[in-house]
Write a structure and sequence with these properties.
Layout lengths: L1 E8 L9 H15 L5 E6 L4 E5 L5 H8 L5 E10 L3 H15 L3 E8 L8 H17 L6 E2 L6 E8 L2 E5 L3 E2 L11 E5 L4 H12 L3 E8 L9 H16 L1 E8 L1 H10 L5 H19 L5 E2 L12 H8 L6 E2 L7 H11 L2 H4 L21 H8 L4 H10 L2 E8 L2 E6 L3 H14 L2 H11 L1
Parallel strand pairs: 5-6, 5-7, 10-11, 10-13, 11-12, 13-14
Antiparallel strand pairs: 1-3, 1-4, 2-3, 4-8, 4-9, 7-8, 12-15, 15-16
Helix pairs in contact: 3-4, 5-6, 5-10, 8-9, 8-13, 9-12, 13-14
């Protein structure tokens, strides 16, 4: 008897001619996740991956790591036995006796066209033998085909059978870094981290941008919370980059130069403009936000459309239709809930208007921005930025401070353009 892990992938088998690309990325992610753990082999068998551990004692740690590998639908610790009925039945009886269920079912998948029985015949025969074996110990045991306490799962592949009674759900989705790059606007709250995770789950690689202010003496800065969130999310995609942008000075200029009712919308549009510059440096194809339609005044459909006008990049809002209970459930599942519960002071609630606009039009925000020097505010944000790179390897997340050379070059170009009035005017037009 050989102990293995069956790794079932989800959407990859639907990919047709592109399946091998996604499968190779999934294998690479598995190996990278387990690089410091003993793995004897990893190979494909009939639309599933079979992982053989080098040490059975490492199985719990291996399974814990694999629960964060995008693309895996579920994983199951299984025994590999000969596919002959007698061998298979003996192992099924032993495993079910160890589980000691009050009721059970047997489910069989056959991926061997030369096997002499079909799935239904095999389920009946195995079920009969398991029932007899269990009733020899406890006469009250019965078969229950709907919602059984324990299900004996059998997968017959060419030359062998795989049998298990436990399976662990994986994250699903597509393997990491298979769908392009995005930049997520990250607060310290629940929503933005879940939004980033959902896009990561679709194969997107996320870089993060966090805007912070100077906290009051009674509250903590949101910077530390944002850093913890990125640390929690990095194992899902292996590398991350977090840009931290001081926003106080920018906010004060918006407060001084724009109508009170548009303040929050202008904050958010300015954040999107700064994030757009970072996205261009990161070669990202769009922005991600944690907006949830009409959750707060700035997230009405009218206001979201007005904020997006002129940004020039797609803005993805994966939580747009979720309710708060769904978002909190996701946050608990991915490990960011407790982090976001920590007390901190966000920058957006500062200088809140008494009556915020809820049906703003793009032209109204354009007019309000006309009183501001948009280019200089974008430069102000970028010049004050700090950047940290994170990497997940050998079971740990490490970090180092580092400002990408591409960002330094972009900022230098923007400064040069600012010294040329004609070029500066053209750049301002492009931003709007």
């Amino acid at each position: 008897m050989k102990r293995i892990l069956i790794l079932h992938y989800h959407e990859i088998w639907l990919k047709g001619g592109n399946k091998n690309y996604f499968l190779s990325r999934l294998r690479a992610a598995i190996r990278q996740s387990l690089e410091d753990l003993p793995v004897a082999s990893l190979h494909s068998v009939s639309e599933r991956l079979i992982l053989t551990p080098g040490d059975d004692a490492a199985l719990p740690r291996i399974m814990e790591r694999l629960r964060r590998v995008f693309g895996l639908a579920y994983l199951a610790p299984a025994h590999e036995v000969p596919s002959a009925l007698e061998s298979l039945a003996a192992e099924a009886c032993a495993m079910m006796a160890e589980a000691h269920p009050a009721n059970f079912a047997v489910r069989v998948k056959i991926a061997d066209s030369n096997y002499g029985m079909n799935s239904l015949e095999m389920e009946r025969e195995l079920g009969r033998r398991v029932l007899e074996h269990l009733r020899s110990r406890d006469a009250s045991v019965r078969v229950k085909l709907v919602n059984p306490e324990v299900t004996c799962q059998v997968e017959i592949v060419p030359g062998k059978a795989l049998i298990y009674v436990q399976r662990v759900e994986g994250p699903g989705g597509l393997p990491a870094v298979t769908s392009g790059r995005l930049v997520a606007l990250l607060s310290g709250g629940f929503d933005s981290s879940v939004a980033a995770y959902k896009m990561m789950r679709r194969g997107c690689h996320i870089s993060f941008v966090h805007f912070f202010g100077n906290p009051s003496p009674a509250r903590n800065s949101s910077e530390a919370v944002a850093e913890e969130i990125v640390r929690a999310l990095t194992p899902y995609q292996f590398t991350s980059r977090l840009y931290r942008i001081p926003f106080d000075a920018i906010q004060r200029q918006i407060v001084a130069g724009a109508h009170e009712s548009f303040r929050v919308l202008l904050y958010r549009r300015m954040m999107a403009r700064i994030a757009r510059e970072i996205a261009r440096t990161e070669r990202a194809l769009g922005l991600v936000t944690g907006d949830n339609v009409s959750q707060v005044a700035s997230q009405t459909l009218h206001n979201l459309a007005a904020i997006d006008q002129g940004i020039g990049l797609p803005v993805y809002r994966p939580l747009a239709g979720d309710d708060k209970a769904e978002i909190l459930r996701w946050a608990r599942q991915i490990g960011t809930y407790k982090i976001s519960c920590e007390p901190f002071e966000d920058c957006c609630p500062r200088f809140m208007p008494r009556a915020p606009a809820i049906f703003a039009r793009p032209e109204e925000l354009d007019e309000a921005e006309g009183r501001l020097d948009i280019d200089s505010l974008v430069r102000l944000g970028l010049e004050g930025a700090a950047c940290t790179e994170y990497k997940f390897e050998r079971g740990e997340v490490t970090s180092r401070e580092g400002y990408p050379r591409r960002m330094e070059n972009r900022l230098a170009r923007k400064k040069a353009m600012a010294r040329q009035p004609a070029a500066h005017g053209a750049a301002s037009n492009n931003l709007c």
